[in-house]
């Protein structure tokens, strides 16, 4: 049983000083300051100075602590040391406060004032009075003591106001404030008078942001190492830099130049109540380096704000609104930036690789028609909307080109061409909107095609094959896997009348993924609507994949054609515009790589972080400036902390286990030798570990390897052993085959244990395990279990039918 002793900090420090002075020694480890380690170091220096200035005739003090001849030199040395350490600690403390997007900046000043008051009027005054009253100090010692206390009296003296903080942080180079730029003038009424008012947007200097980001320890090196790793397996396309479009953009650079892709993104978001009197849409432009290591690609911290403005200001022309961003992108491509590295200064160039966004955002910035009801709504081709209703495959003769785009601009008739105006991004040397091969699979599939198909499938099945009540009951009782972050909402009883499923894009993905397990036993194998659902599954498997090889481009082209044909024949409906977008997806794979990596989902998550300061403040006077400043303060904290861009290994709560407790401890023979474990050894284990941005928990299914035929070898994670690189103890999973009716593998578990490392997994992303509700499709064993292998937004596996073939390419 552990006994705890509660003692006040002032009493503890008083006791420590008295004992140290009586014993004539300084025990730095004895001084404990529960609140912060800043005061501990200061107190240690006070101890040292007092000992150094003790009576020279006291042999105890002389033998324990060497003392310089002059007290002033000692005091000056410690004064500088304390000032530096306290200043750094205060800088980091305030940066952490500013790093909280939901904390209004006005409260930062209050917190600084309160902490200063606590230090000066509370801790230090009590501590100083205790020291003076309990120790007999001469005048020199009192002088040293006063200097030491003055050092720690107000550590925020250089950060006393927001003006001083911004000035100090800007001078250090870590804080990069946004810059206001004029967009135009509006006529406003003030005090019954018509006046002209200038309107502004906010832009962030990308040169400074990218320089700071790449000068984070090992950031540039980590990116270059990842790029070199892609060269080892050129057949497997995992990133934009491996594809045709990037190769054409880099032709003017030499092989020795460091050139990185920079994706630009534009979208609009609502910062106020959209139904209220103060509804306000903001135009947000972000950029992201397009070749970050996989574990860094989805982090919102690695997406940088470039522009922020009221979206209504686009009436002044895109040239004025996007002007600062275009100039920066041109500078980055033509001149690059100098980055300090351990190997010296290196020049890094950035090319605007893709303009990302949803269909409305990209079409509007690209100068195309913004409505799906336009005669020529597609930004990739000039196919009339009447023809797109039955088009199942791309017509290469109708693809837009730079020449046809210029001709359409000269025609100046959007009803005949689909082009409204020239794209402002065409001013960038290596960019043209007609070669901007980017799509938004999140909206095209999750909030488009998948929604339409599932509505048609449900209309066919309800109530002929099952009722909405039965489906909702199974949804409520469904046992989700440890990898499933989303939950399927129950369906409204009037969904057929409303012609809409109340689901987000992510929830629709989950619904499509689990629909076969939920209700597949109620649907005949040869039902045409069920075949349409399975075609949708296969299509989503390819589109949500994060890696593919050249054969998958052909497979996707065939899959899209079959899917569109089947949809028209089964439902009797024409193809909607988002179905037409699918015919261009094979070309997108060839030119820009996996479409899952250029989805808007991660950028929309950035919106939530951007809008957090807007919801935390009541002021709307200049909301763009408020949001931009707060965002840059968040970035400042990230740069100030100098943490690696690669996520660190993070373990959950640790506990002790004995290897002999496992049912089959023979696996211990194959554990890493540096663990020095035997059958009877005990070691630390954890409930979870986050490794390279992926969280692992016992109960997950891992793709450990492939067998001789190229089929998957599964393992169920049983335990996570603590070590510098986690050790996974897993039980073997017997793959009984693929049930194509529910599009899942049927498996059974065994007691045979083995161990592996997350570095050696065939696919690092874990899979979900789900029990069938009725067990009708899994009759072989008493416990019927299905492992969903194609996890859409999680797995690297592409097409369920070609899984055995493709796994050969994944090693």
UniProtKB/TrEMBL annotation:
Domain of life of the native organism: Eukaryota
PANTHER family referenced in this protein's UniProt entry, alphabetically: IP13529P (PTHR31912), NOTOCHORD-RELATED PROTEIN (PTHR31912:SF34)
Name this polypeptide is given: Uncharacterized protein LOC127750959
Taxonomic classification: Eukaryota, Metazoa, Ecdysozoa, Arthropoda, Hexapoda
